[in-house]
């Protein structure tokens, strides 16, 4: 395991939701926090973000959803990651997510959900503490 | 350029003051006191004039709310057309004076409810509309010659407007009698709201076709609601909101002129849509400055002769992004101040947000409180008794002039880039907004700016209100309706209308009558948009952060 490698993150917007203010602010804060950050841009399908996450060998996928479609889209992304043997890519979420939905999303496999009021330093710190670089060699062997 | 978001040099605190710097929420400095001589070079005759007269700083009507108060227009839409039709009837019974349609994301993006990207989104953030049949249900038992209807639709605006015209026809309402507003502002989609279909230049063709069609046939319709609301929600400052909106307006007027339309006829039908955020005086000044700048642009830059073309008519909505999920009842207080700012700024129409909108689409209870807030301002507060009560205030006039000056600097910059489309293609407004929103978030994190319940006074009532949820049955029902229509309609007749539409789009014929034909043949929003996409292409954003 190469602990020197910078953690790579994919910030993504899935679905038709065009509210990218939060995603862009977070992407910039994470980049300033020392991570390698890729932003998918808008209007991605779950298939598209999962494909990008795998191709780019990211360590975590940070999805921003403000449209109310989170209970459909997060489980779909997690399922696709598992199907493609990339279940070790962590999934984090942010957006307008009602409190009652948060435990259900975590149970489904989302590592953490950040809602309005979460500060940028707290999000950066969380990623530092909970998203280690993946062991890519092992992952690649598994996929072959 | 980003003067308002630059870090100022460290200064020392004035004796006896709470802070080193006092600034508006947009980071505009505020002095301890304003007096005679503020703002410098202030000439009341030139800068204020009389209410109802150029440059309309004090309002577009001579007697403002003494004549008639603003239109209380609550934006609503969710679930199926039947659900939303019921909500409209509820709002009309409770004294709302204009309808305002919220469409769901698939409709806003011009895709049908069965499109892969629509998964989980059908009916969630607005009403799902696929075909004319949905629109007929949406306005069932609502006489379109008697209400005014605002429709927040942009990329597929021509298609939705054609559906509205077709419903009116079926009701027997004449086109002359139709009143309402189509948002139809594609520039701010590329800048902020991000619901587009085609690239900017071909899309403008659809807009000028619609302007021409309405000038001839739907004379009372407001064809574009040039919107700063979404720019502000995306994180801009007040000045950026104003500047980019007016630059968009300049872009539409120029496009109309370039298409050979008569500015004296189409320009008076353009209207504007602004945000009312928390900073009370800054917002009032912004709305006053908006009228003054637009009047000068229309009279001096475009040499419009009809005074109706000089008047900036506006709708205002309170700032969704200012509301908090924490202690949500506090949002009633925020909305009250924002609504009061909109009224003191002289708006023609107002939407007040509901306290629960950070959690869900508003419940009936929350919507009623929001509407009552407007009624309390209109009928109890007394602020409607005189015109522009803050006119002549040293502070308000100083802010108004300062905002005008800074907005004009942005507009000049955009002119130098060759206009708003070039600026959009260079990501200029997008970058300025991203910068401002990041700066504001840092100010929140450092407690330099405050949101009660979020970074200050966080202890207390976190009782969660009742929320409205849209279940999966809405999507199922909508897909069933869509399938049914697709089986019932005459596919050959529809295909013929789509071919005719493409021929018009490739040539010079106005596309509106052809879109209307396709709508009457029960073509879907997605099918009609896809037909045009084959001619116009699709838009791809290069994302910046």
What are the key terms here?
A: 144 residues; alpha/beta; Rossmann fold; five-stranded parallel beta sheet; 6 helices; globular; B: 545 residues; nine-stranded parallel beta sheet; 21 helices; disordered N terminus
Write the layout of secondary structure elements.
The complex is a heterodimer of chains A (144) and B (545).
Chain A: E1 8-13, H1 21-32, E2 36-39, H2 46-55, E3 60-65, H3 70-83, E4 90-95, H4 101-108, E5 112-114, H5 120-130, H6 136-143
Helix pairs in contact in A: 1-5, 2-3
Chain B: H1 44-47, E1 71-76, H2 81-93, E2 98-102, H3 105-108, H4 132-138, E3 148-152, H5 157-171, E4 179-182, H6 187-193, H7 200-217, E5 221-222, E6 224-227, H8 229-233, H9 238-258, H10 263-266, E7 270-276, H11 280-301, H12 307-310, E8 314-318, H13 330-344, E9 349-351, H14 364-379, H15 394-416, H16 420-425, H17 428-445, H18 472-488, H19 491-506, H20 512-520, H21 525-536
Parallel strand pairs in B: 1-2, 1-9, 2-3, 3-4, 4-5, 6-7, 7-8, 8-9
What's the quick description here?
Chain A is an alpha/beta fold and 144 residues long.
Give an overview of the whole structure:
In chain A, helix 3 links the parallel strand 3 and strand 4. Chain A has one domain: Cobalamin-binding domain (Rossmann fold). Chain A is globular and about 40 Å long. The longest helix of chain A has 14 residues. Chain A has a five-stranded parallel β-sheet with strand order 2-1-3-4-5, sandwiched between helices. Chain A contains six helices and five strands. In chain A, 44% of the residues lie in helices and 17% in strands. With 545 residues, chain B is of the alpha/beta class. In chain B, 47% of the residues lie in helices and 8% in strands. In chain B, helix 2 packs parallel to helix 4 and helix 19 packs parallel to helix 21. Chain B starts with 43 loop residues before the first helix and ends in a 9-residue tail after the last helix. Chains A and B meet through helix 1 and helix 3 of A and helix 3 and helix 17 of B.
């Amino acid at each position: 395991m190469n602990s020197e490698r910078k953690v790579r993150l994919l910030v993504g917007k899935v679905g038709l939701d065009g509210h990218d203010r939060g995603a862009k602010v977070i992407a910039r804060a994470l980049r300033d926090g020392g991570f390698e950050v890729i932003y998918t841009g808008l209007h991605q399908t779950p298939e598209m973000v999962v494909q990008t996450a795998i191709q780019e060998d990211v360590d975590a996928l940070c999805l921003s959803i403000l449209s109310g479609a989170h209970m459909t889209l997060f489980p779909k992304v997690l399922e696709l990651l598992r199907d493609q043997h990339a279940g070790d890519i962590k999934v984090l979420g942010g957006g307008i997510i009602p409190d009652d939905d948060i435990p259900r999303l975590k149970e489904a496999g989302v590592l953490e959900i950040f809602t309005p009021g979460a500060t940028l330093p707290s999000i950066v710190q969380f990623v530092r503490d909970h998203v280690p670089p993946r062991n890519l060699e092992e992952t690649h062997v598994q996929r072959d | 350029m980003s003067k308002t978001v630059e870090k100022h040099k460290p200064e020392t605190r004035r004796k006896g003051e709470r802070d080193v710097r006092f600034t508006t929420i947009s980071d505009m400095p505020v002095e301890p006191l304003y007096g005679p001589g503020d703002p410098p070079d202030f000439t009341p005759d030139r800068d204020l004039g009389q209410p109802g007269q150029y440059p309309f700083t004090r309002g577009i009507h001579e007697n403002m709310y003494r004549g008639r108060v603003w239109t209380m227009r609550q934006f609503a839409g969710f679930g199926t057309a039947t659900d939303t039709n019921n909500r409209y009837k509820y709002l009309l019974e409770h004294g709302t004076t204009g309808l305002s349609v919220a469409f769901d994301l698939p409709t806003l993006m011009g895709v049908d409810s069965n499109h892969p990207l629509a998964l989980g989104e059908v009916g969630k953030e607005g009403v799902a509309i696929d075909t004319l049949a949905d629109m007929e249900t949406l306005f069932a038992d609502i006489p379109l010659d008697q209400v005014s209807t605002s429709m927040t639709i942009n990329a597929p605006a021509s298609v939705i407007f054609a559906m509205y015209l077709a419903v009116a026809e079926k009701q027997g309402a004449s086109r002359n009698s139709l009143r309402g507003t189509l948002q139809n502002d594609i520039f701010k989609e590329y800048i902020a709201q991000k619901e587009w279909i085609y690239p900017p230049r071909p899309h403008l063709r659809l807009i000028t076709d619609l302007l021409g069609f309405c000038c001839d046939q739907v004379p009372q319709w407001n064809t574009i609601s040039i919107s700063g609301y979404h720019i502000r929600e995306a994180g801009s400052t007040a000045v950026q909101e104003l500047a980019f909106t007016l630059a968009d307006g300049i872009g539409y007027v120029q496009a109309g002129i370039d298409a050979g339309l008569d500015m004296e006829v189409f320009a008076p039908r353009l209207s504007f849509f602004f945000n009312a955020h928390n900073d009370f005086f800054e917002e009032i000044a912004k709305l006053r400055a908006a009228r003054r700048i637009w009047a000068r642009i229309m009279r001096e830059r475009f040499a419009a002769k009809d005074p109706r073309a000089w008047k900036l008519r506006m709708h205002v909505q309170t700032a969704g992004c200012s509301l908090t999920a924490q202690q949500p009842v506090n949002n009633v207080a925020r909305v009250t101040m924002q609504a009061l700012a909109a009224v003191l700024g002289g708006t023609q129409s107002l939407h007040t947000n509901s306290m629960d909108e950070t959690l869900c689409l508003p419940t009936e209870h929350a919507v009623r409180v929001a509407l009552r807030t407007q009624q309390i301002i209109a009928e109890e507060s007394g602020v409607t008794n005189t015109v522009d009560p803050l006119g002549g205030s040293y502070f308000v006039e100083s802010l108004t002039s300062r905002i005008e000056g800074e907005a004009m600097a942005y507009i000049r910059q955009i002119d130098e880039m060759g206009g708003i489309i070039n600026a959009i293609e260079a990501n200029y407004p997008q970058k300025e907004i991203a910068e401002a929103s990041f700066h504001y978030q840092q100010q929140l994190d450092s407690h330099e700016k405050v949101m009660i319940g979020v970074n200050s006074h966080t202890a207390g009532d976190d009782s969660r209100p009742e929320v409205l949820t849209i279940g999966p049955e809405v999507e199922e029902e909508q897909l069933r309706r869509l399938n049914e229509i697709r089986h019932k309609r005459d596919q050959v007749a529809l295909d013929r209308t789509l071919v005719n539409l493409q021929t018009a789009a490739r040539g010079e014929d106005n596309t509106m009558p052809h879109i209307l034909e396709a709508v009457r043949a029960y073509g879907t929003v997605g099918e009609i948009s896809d037909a045009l996409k084959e001619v116009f292409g699709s838009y791809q954003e290069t994302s910046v952060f």
